[in-house]
UniProtKB/TrEMBL annotation:
It is a multi-pass membrane protein. GO terms for cellular component: plasma membrane. This is AzlC family ABC transporter permease. Belongs to the AzlC family. Keywords: Cell membrane, Membrane, Transmembrane, Transmembrane helix, Transport. The lineage of its organism: Bacteria, Bacillati, Actinomycetota, Actinomycetes, Micrococcales. The keyword Transmembrane helix applies. It is found in: Cell membrane. The chain crosses the membrane at residues 40-67, 127-152, 158-176, 188-217. GO terms for biological process: L-valine transmembrane transport.
Length: 227
């Protein structure tokens, strides 16, 4: 019964998160990437916040190095998630270990650690079902968004020029329920706004990401995972 409930939760999260891939695909094409480059980002990077940051920097006129650095900083949080998940996933070796690393994201971590601490199988089920579910949905819907985005003309006519910020906010909003996260987010936002008039494109976002990482925003705590 518990495993069925866990799978149902994982599928719900997968579909809800995967839907943002439509916005990412369209925004990526609008920023100048082609369909295949957009799909490669989702397949290889597979981290919504990092991907939106990458195309946001490119779309604002930033260079590829600034975009890659910003994306990397935001992606470092997944390494912290791996530390928190290690006791749940052991023992794991070979290709399963590599696959687990690829699908260690916000959602798979949250669903896994939201299960009872004494029910290891439910935690592992939550991790795998959510990680793989989001991966499949995100990549499929990214492709759809990229194909649609290449055919709709000027993205500003459809409001897609603001979609990256809106989708990114929707992705991080559930993680701002605690005062520490709110304080870090506010500090990062103030720094980014202060740097925007004087810094090259991409640098404000990179600085904000650095603040979040240094403050340990991405470090998973059991009491901070939503039930």
């Amino acid at each position: 019964m518990m495993l069925d409930a866990t799978r149902q939760q994982a599928l719900s999260v997968s579909l809800a998160t995967g839907a943002y891939g439509l916005s990412f695909g369209a925004l990526s094409v609008a920023a100048g990437l082609d369909v295949w480059q957009t799909c490669a980002l989702s397949l290889l990077v597979f981290s919504g916040g990092s991907q939106f940051a990458f195309v946001g920097v490119i779309g604002a006129g930033g260079g590829p190095w600034a975009a890659a650095a910003t994306s990397t900083f935001l992606g470092l949080r997944n390494g912290f998630y791996g530390v928190g998940l290690a006791p749940v996933m052991r023992p794991i070796t070979g290709w399963r270990r590599a696959w687990a690393a690829q699908v260690t994201i916000d959602e798979s971590t949250a669903v896994a650690l939201a299960q009872p601490a004494d029910h290891r199988e439910a935690r592992r089920t939550g991790f795998w079902w959510t990680g793989v579910g989001v991966f499949l949905a995100w990549n499929a819907i990214t492709l759809l968004g990229a194909l649609l985005g290449s055919r709709i003309g000027d993205p500003a006519d459809w409001g897609l020029d603001a979609a990256a910020a809106a989708a990114f906010l929707a992705l991080v909003w559930p993680r701002l329920a605690h005062r520490r996260a709110q304080a870090v987010a506010a500090g990062a936002a103030v720094l980014a706004l202060a740097l925007t008039p004087v810094a090259p494109p991409g640098v404000p976002v990179l600085a904000a990401a650095a603040i979040a990482i240094l403050a340990g925003w991405g470090h998973p705590r059991l009491e901070e995972v939503p039930e």
